[in-house]
Design a protein that fits this description.
4-stranded mixed β-sheet; alpha/beta; single chain
């Protein structure tokens, strides 16, 4: 069997990188990706909380809807309490479904990262023409509601197509979170110019840990703390970037928020050594140090 090569970026060992620091001389950058999503009712798609039930399935849809009605607000309050920023990975269907929630994130100064229209539809299920139109509509929705061009992208379901990166560069995106390949940003090649791949956690993420692997709230909190603690040690030798991914309908549940507070307590205890940023701020700093032309 012939193994097809990946042509987006070359292999480069983490031990073979130039040295640098994040702002303030920090060696570890940490961001939180909060996924705020909306799903179609009665058609399936998205994470299955009660697989096998016929649609309409109020149990499954209602589980996700809790995040928009309650969980998202509670997590916003939590991050405001700890004075930490968020990168909000947004399904733009939320602009019509729960606009008050999105306006509150924008008013807080959180970054809005494009996350498709809905997680009921993945780019890899679309034709290139359909995907181009979807990205165009998502981009225009964010611009019309926030007044600025979205800079970052995360595909619904973390499931980009073979042309997603080409289309993102075409529409002016600067970075993607679709590739869990590294602990530093990485430049990718597209047909329409360079695109930065930002470190994104597919494991330090409440979907695989809690939903897919039946992890407990306390185990997820331990995972987040252990990951940052170990990366703090590693960052003494080399600058690194770490993400934590949570969903409004998963960690937004009260008993999980109670455990997740331990994560934010740990982060604040190490504020002298961590640069707390958004994904976009991390991308900006790295691109300023290492422009695509130099890679």
């Amino acid at each position: 069997m012939k193994i097809e090569p990946n042509t987006r970026f070359p292999y480069r060992a983490i031990t073979d990188r130039p040295d640098f620091s994040w702002p303030g001389g920090k060696r570890l950058a940490v961001y939180t990706a909060l996924c705020v999503e909306h799903f179609s009712y009665g058609t399936g798609g998205g994470l299955p909380y009660s697989p096998g039930l016929d649609h309409p399935n109020s149990y499954n849809w209602g589980w996700r809807e809790y995040g928009n009605r309650v969980g998202g607000w509670r997590l916003m309050e939590l991050y405001e309490e700890y004075k930490l920023p968020l990168s909000v990975l947004l399904n733009t269907a939320c602009y019509d479904h729960c606009p008050e929630l999105i306006r509150a994130f924008v008013a807080r100064g959180d970054e809005i990262v494009a996350h498709g229209q809905t997680n009921s539809e993945h780019p890899n299920q679309l034709t290139p023409a359909e995907e181009r139109e979807m990205i165009r509509e998502v981009t225009e929705a964010i611009k019309s509601n926030g007044g600025t061009q979205p800079r970052g992208w995360m595909s619904p379901g973390a499931h980009p197509s073979a042309v997603t990166e080409d289309l993102l560069a075409e529409f002016g995106y600067e970075y993607t979170l679709d590739w869990p390949i590294d602990d530093q940003p990485t430049w990718m090649s597209t047909k329409n110019g360079p695109l930065l791949s930002m470190p994104y956690p597919h494991e330090v993420n409440d979907v695989p840990m809690i939903v897919l692997h039946d992890g407990t709230a306390s185990a997820f909190a331990d995972m987040c703390i252990d990951n940052v603690a170990e990366m703090l040690e590693q960052s003494k030798r080399q600058p690194l970037a770490s993400g934590i991914t949570i969903h409004s309908f998963i960690v937004g549940q009260p008993f999980r928020i109670r455990q997740f507070r331990r994560v934010l307590d740990f982060l604040n205890q190490h504020s002298d050594d961590i640069w707390f940023a958004t994904a976009g701020e991390i991308a900006d700093h790295y691109a300023g140090l290492f422009p695509a032309s130099g890679n």
